[in-house]
């Protein structure tokens, strides 16, 4: 130890990093207190003179032998080059193993070239890295889930639009043609065919009813005004058709991406429908604001307590629509004090499309 004392400054005894010196044959010549503590020994005398390889890792954690000839920590003694590794497992005095990061550098000793070791228990580092990888994986899964939701929302929007177009251009047009044919037939009948008149009048009435119902169905699937004029016009039309007097506040003229307009509209429509069905409200207010995000608010003066009146499926549907576009949904519904549904959808790059808010009343009209 006198020799080692001349080589290493006594300051090594006070550092927290493990420091070992081994000779050309791999025997431990010196360990600082940190090295004693790391392996669970009581004093340096228990380590000095032992084979460093047999002390640290005579076998692997799975029990297989680990020959000293394969130990990369000893190679600097023969190569003269430093070495480093993060994939070793060291054994404590009690037989337990821990992952270790290590550095080894050659050192010239009177008896030949030896090695200086420095190592530390990498358990915490690996745990942190594992946690980071799990967070990254969770974020990737969440991003993929949102992307899938967005693709589904876009697909649903496309299907809704196509279905509404098919209803309008197909069945509705054929019914209109039938209605015209029935009216022309009625006009051609002699005046003394009262029974035929009655039958035709009934058929005309049924055809008109079918057209009206089909028009309502097509509107519910995907309102044509949403495609033609955008979100504000579609919400205004929704307010006009609402069974409860509805005020729309806010105005902007620019178009938003089709999938955002569609999902925003159906969020408003679902919230308004819930207010009509469950809130016992006398007034509904829809607010729309567009800045760096699209903000939608549907408020009513009804009985509140929305969780007691709205199915969890409806709430889940609203949340899924907003989450698909990285948005947020907040529902405030204290019992007896009305319900406010607030949704926000971020817009890429922001926008300066906000106009000064304005309110306009839509006259009462039942569905």
SSE series:
HEEHHHEEEHHHHEHEEHHEEE
Structural class: alpha+beta
- Gyration radius (Cα, Å) is 39 Å
Biggest sheet, strands in spatial order? 9-10-8-7-6-11
What's the end-to-end separation, in Å?
Answer: 97 Å
Query: What summary fits the major beta sheet?
Result: 6 strands, mixed
Look at the structure and give the mean pLDDT: 79
Helix content: 40-55%
Using the coordinates shown, work out and report the CATH topology of the largest domain: Heat Shock Protein 90
Large-scale geometry:
rod-shaped
Number of domains: 3
What is the CATH class name of the largest domain?
Answer: Alpha Beta
Helix count, per DSSP? 11
Write the CATH architecture name of the largest domain: 2-Layer Sandwich
Topology:
Elements: H1 2-7, E1 18-22, E2 28-31, H2 33-39, H3 52-56, H4 76-79, E3 83-91, E4 97-109, E5 112-121, H5 123-188, H6 194-221, H7 224-229, H8 231-241, E6 246-249, H9 258-278, E7 284-290, E8 293-300, H10 306-309, H11 312-323, E9 328-332, E10 339-346, E11 359-362
Parallel strand pairs: 6-7
Antiparallel strand pairs: 1-2, 1-5, 3-4, 4-5, 6-11, 7-8, 8-10, 9-10
Helix pairs in contact: 5-6, 5-9, 8-9, 9-11
Question: What would you note in describing this structure?
Answer:
The structure is a single chain. With 367 residues, this protein is an alpha+beta fold. It folds into three domains: 2-121, Beta-Lactamase, CATH 3.30.450; 139-222; 229-367, Histidine kinase-like ATPase, C-terminal domain (Heat Shock Protein 90). The chain is built from eleven helices and eleven strands. The protein has a six-stranded mixed β-sheet, with helices on one face. Helix 5 (123-188) packs antiparallel against helix 6 (194-221) and helix 5 crosses helix 9 (258-278). The longest helix is centred in the middle third of the chain and has 66 residues, at 123-188. The chain starts with a helix and ends in a 5-residue tail after the last strand. Mean pLDDT is 79; it is low at 1-5, 308-312 and 350-367.
């Amino acid at each position: 130890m006198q020799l080692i004392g001349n080589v290493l400054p006594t300051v090594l005894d006070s550092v927290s990093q493990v420091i070992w010196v081994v000779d050309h044959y791999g025997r431990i010549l010196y360990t600082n207190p940190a090295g004693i503590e790391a392996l669970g020994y009581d004093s340096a005398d228990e380590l000095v003179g032992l084979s460093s390889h047999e002390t640290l890792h005579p076998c692997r954690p799975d029990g297989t032998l680990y020959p000293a000839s394969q130990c990369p920590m000893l190679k600097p003694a023969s190569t003269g080059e430093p070495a480093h590794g993060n994939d070793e497992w060291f054994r404590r005095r009690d037989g337990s193993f821990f992952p270790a990061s290590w550095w080894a550098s050659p050192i010239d000793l009177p008896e030949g070239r030896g090695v200086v070791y420095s190592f530390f228990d990498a358990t915490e580092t690996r745990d942190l890295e594992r946690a980071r990888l799990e967070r990254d994986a969770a974020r990737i899964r969440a991003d993929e889930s949102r992307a899938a939701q967005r693709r589904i929302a876009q697909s649903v929007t496309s299907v809704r639009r196509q279905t509404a177009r098919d209803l309008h251009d197909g069945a509705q047009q054929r019914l209109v043609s039938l209605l015209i044919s029935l009216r022309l037939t009625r006009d051609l009948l002699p005046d003394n065919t009262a029974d035929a008149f009655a039958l035709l009048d009934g058929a005309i009435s049924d055809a008109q009813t079918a057209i009206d119902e089909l028009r309502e169905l097509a509107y519910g699937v995907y309102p044509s005004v949403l495609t033609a004029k955008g979100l504000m016009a579609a919400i205004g039309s929704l307010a006009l058709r609402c069974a409860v007097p509805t005020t729309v506040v806010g105005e902007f003229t620019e178009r938003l991406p089709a999938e955002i307009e569609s999902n925003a509209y159906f969020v408003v429509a679902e919230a308004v429908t819930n207010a009509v069905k469950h809130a016992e409200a006398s007034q509904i207010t829809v607010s729309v604001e567009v800045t760096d995000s699209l903000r939608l608010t549907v408020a009513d003066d009804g009985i509140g307590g929305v969780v007691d009146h709205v199915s969890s499926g409806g709430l889940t549907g609203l949340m899924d629509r907003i989450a698909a576009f990285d948005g947020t949904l907040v529902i405030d519904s204290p019992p007896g004090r009305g319900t406010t549904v607030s949704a926000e959808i971020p817009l890429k790059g922001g926008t300066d499309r906000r106009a000064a808010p304005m309110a306009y009343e839509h006259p009462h009209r039942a569905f």
